[in-house]
Amino acid sequence: MTDWTVPADRPEYDDAVEAALAKLDLDTKADLLAGLDMWRTVAAPEAGLRSMTVSDGPIGVRGRFWTAADPSLALPSPTAQAASWDPALVRRIGNLLAAEARRKDVDVLLAPTINLHRSPLGGRHFEAFSEDPYLTGRIAEAYVAGVQEQGVGTTMKHYVANDAETDRFTVDNVIGERTLRELYLRPFEMVAAAVNPWGVMTAYNSVNGTTMTAHRELMEVLRGEFGFDGFNVSDWGAARHTVEAAEAGLDLAMPGPFTVFGRHLADAVREGRTTEAAVDANVRRILKLAARVGALDGVEAAVAGRAAAIADPDALLREIARRSFVLAKNDAPAGGGAAVLPLDPDATGTVALIGPAARDARVLGGGSATVFPPHVVSPLDGLTARLGDRVVYAQGVDLFEQIEAAGRGFELTVRPVAKDGTELPAEPLANGDVKWMGYVPGMTPDEFGHAVLEGRYTATKAGEHVFGTRGYGHHRLVIDGEVVFDDDHQYAGDDPFEAFFGPGVERTRIRLDAGQVLQIRLEFAPFDFPPGFPPSVLFGLMHTEPRPDEQALIEEAVAAARAADTAVVVVSTTALTESEGFDRRDLRLPGRQDELVAAVAAANPNTVVVVNTGSPVEMPWAGAVAGILLTWFPGQEGGNALAEVLLGAEPGGRLTTTWPKTLADAPVTQVVPDEAGRLHYDEGVFIGYRAWQRRGTVEPAFWFGHGLSYTEWAYESLEVAGREARVRVRNTGAVTGRDVVQLYLSPDPAADVPGGIEPVRLAGFAAVEAGPGEEVEVVLAVDDRAFQYWNEEDRAWRTVPGAWTAKAGRNVNDLPLTAAIEA
């Protein structure tokens, strides 16, 4: 456990908050709780309060403007960050994000996500850390500490049990109290106790019949029992009740200004449905946040000065990626010899690099966590930079699923046009997506009339090209002077962002020669969003190239693999597979990627598969390939990091979630509510490795904690004294390496616990590095909670009776060292 040093509140904060509060009238107080717009809070100059800016931030700090004109560093996904099992590294991630936040004038990051990997089908699986609450809590502590020690606030999210996306606005998650306490509340408890986060975000979903933005009981647990004293912000559009939410402790209903607070809350006070004293309690927490981040006159921020810029952020991004990559398999080819990885950069001959994601890198998951990075290094870029013409690329398959945002071959700009005809300067676009969420560049939403996206397309291939649009509003698409579409596009369902984040709509097909140039203009006027959503301009120009002969692509890849010394196949999911807004239907790789891998492996025994996904996928070909490297969504420097690891840099990651061989093997899969809108967590505390170990009859593809090294490790001894475990390990290989020492506790199998007890629990871990022949000792402290369960009858923590055993090793199913430990 780490004793974090976190910014302390200054003694004068309480007096400053009360002085500011006394200068505010009821209407202003109510407005402060409603938000100014999509990303900003309301200012109150009479009280010395400036507006504060919040921003999505799990993977990169987007800032107020979601545009390629204002790029953001794209980090490896949160699951990748956690796969490092390295709180010290994650703290540096926090420092980097804080520097990015300050660069973009952001006061608070809407991160980290500390929900759990309950089901592998969860659409935002990539945005959360782990299936284990203890690992999630430890990584989140480091994340929050790293951000807040630089003076930028954080918000733990999504409180609580927002573990799936299906019907997320309305689902009622039915969860037993023990399960809530031991699993889903545990990371929030750990972070609140360890690093004093300045914020929490309450979720869309309900828990046991009460929507989370108005869940008084669970907010009292967070504030009263866990000691949380920060502000509580709703997820965007989640607040549905005025009095109930305010009195339950919701302090900021976002996005503003059209929320359940503001004038609705002021009216409720005047009508006697709530009290001004209750409103004051909410406002005090907003003012305390302002004091902490330096937005309140008369007091110094919790951290003086601005976050220090990172000298070489790309180098840090590569380090994070390398330490996240999990070497899941590394065998010698069927003919014998050394393990397939690493490749010797001096001796390696030709490398066949295969797969659409090898060229068009998949570095981010979909939804609110996405950013526009300043650059992206693909696997093809990274490996070619190091091996030159020894790299031979083949596409292999076609991952086309639906028409997608215009990209390769397009040169596009977009500009806003006012209702009076005034046109503002155009800004360049990285692709066909325009995402002005809650703002319009250079004018107010009331002044805005429509947007003009225009530019040209140089056909990259001959054949039939498909052009389309998406977005909630009126579209007028003109190609080479011909109007091909001039009509409205509505959305269906409960989520108005569906019309943007969802698929595009085909508008026309045009046959083109390679190199042929088209002039394109798309005019877009948005409709008003429903109440509670601020004015936004969300639309896109969509395009699909002529589809290739996929069988020919596979044959070309097989020929390249057969002629190469090594074949590296990069497989991936797509934006329509892993994203906010929907859950997955299965764990299969999209398209014919499984067939491609099997064919390549049959042609070359030295085949390595790079799995570029944010969450588990089925790998029916796992037994036929020599190597499997899991790279997650690796961020903008992922291609460079991949090349470094393939050519000898240590892959430092370990799994934070158990990977099933098939979806049918997974112990928990349900993400769809029943007809009554309820999602029952009937599995109780048995998710992830807890469920796999308890069942004991089915082997997963890879266990929680699994990950190989380029060296060999011997686990030599485990000694326990009190609540400390000392583990000695030795690098018995020929190169310097890294390992993660993991400590688990097992209770007496006969322990009498209502509902049963898990066979093992993660209780500690430490990353170690050592040179050839070197021995390293780690000391792991075990806290009381590792021995306890929540007794629902007593409504209290109780120690599991009986003898306990400490077990140390390299993953939850490889624990060669054991020792007795007293509870």
TrEMBL record:
PROSITE patterns cross-referenced by the UniProt entry: PA14
Entry protein name: Glycoside hydrolase family 3 protein
Protein origin, superkingdom: Bacteria
GO biological process, one term: carbohydrate metabolic process
Species of provenance: Glycomyces terrestris
PANTHER family (UniProt xref): BETA-GLUCOSIDASE
Occurrences of domain PA14 (ranges): 405-558
Protein family membership: Belongs to the glycosyl hydrolase 3 family.
Keywords annotated in UniProt: Hydrolase
GO molecular function (one): hydrolase activity, hydrolyzing O-glycosyl compounds
